[in-house]
Amino acid sequence: MLDIIYQDEYLVAVNKPAGWLVHRSWLDRHETVFVMQTLRDQIGQHVFPVHRLDRPTSGVLLMALSSDVARLLSQSFEQHKTEKIYHAIVRGYVESELLIDSPLMEEQDKIADKFATQAPKLQECITHCVPLATVEKEVAIGRYSTSRFSLLELRPETGRKHQLRRHMSHIRHPIIGDTAHGDLKQNRGVVTNFQSRRLMLHASHLNLIHPITEQPLRLTAQWDIPWQHLINQFGWRGIRPALEQHGEDLTCHF
């Protein structure tokens, strides 16, 4: 069962689990679990995607309940009329706000874009980065005797493929658990010392104007248990209470 965080007669939003594909893909023919099909079966009606989240990313995923509403929502995303807010845990200390204005080369898939006729283009990419907390742990990962981490709030102005992951790697603060753009030695160290195996990137909030009622809509998805487990180990509980899970059993299951 998916965690439905909002639903009306026009829209439905879920807290997408990390590791789930949004929809079927011939690139992942062996997969059997998808958000769209699971949600369709869960609510008993067709759903229409309007944006995407990478497979290892968790958080707010919005879908329309008709093709007409999907078209309106897609226009909002294309015209940058929505606000997306992510949280990430990264390597090292980020101690001041950053505006990362660094163009990125269009990222093509080695298989899906194998026969693309156009060369990749350099695309404008802008990300706002706000540090929320830092920690230094007495754990040696790499050449230093301690390891430093930061909790960040990230607000992308543009929506390029892997933008946040690539931008954080660009400023040498890769996201923990990123196997494509991150620090593999750091990732292994975090698994060994903190039992965290997932990409530490979460789509926490999506703010938009409802396409039908024209009222402001703020969607929020809480961190999952592996996220909360690492937050607790780093002493960051209470920094973003609206995103935290509460209760006696926050045992991390992998």
From TrEMBL:
GO biological process: enzyme-directed rRNA pseudouridine synthesis; tRNA processing
Keyword terms of this UniProt record: Isomerase, Lyase, tRNA processing
InterPro entries listed in its UniProt record: PsdUridine_synth_cat_dom_sf, PsdUridine_synth_RluA-like_CS, PsdUridine_synth_RsuA/RluA, RluA_PseudoU_synthase
Catalytic activity, as annotated: uridine(65) in tRNA = pseudouridine(65) in tRNA
GO molecular function, one term: RNA binding
One Pfam assignment: PseudoU_synth_2
Top enzyme category: isomerase
Ranges where the Pseudouridine synthase RsuA/RluA-like domain occurs: 11-170
EC number, as in UniProt: 5.4.99.26
Purpose: Responsible for synthesis of pseudouridine from uracil-65 in transfer RNAs.
Name of this chain's protein: tRNA pseudouridine synthase C
Organism annotation: Proteus myxofaciens ATCC 19692
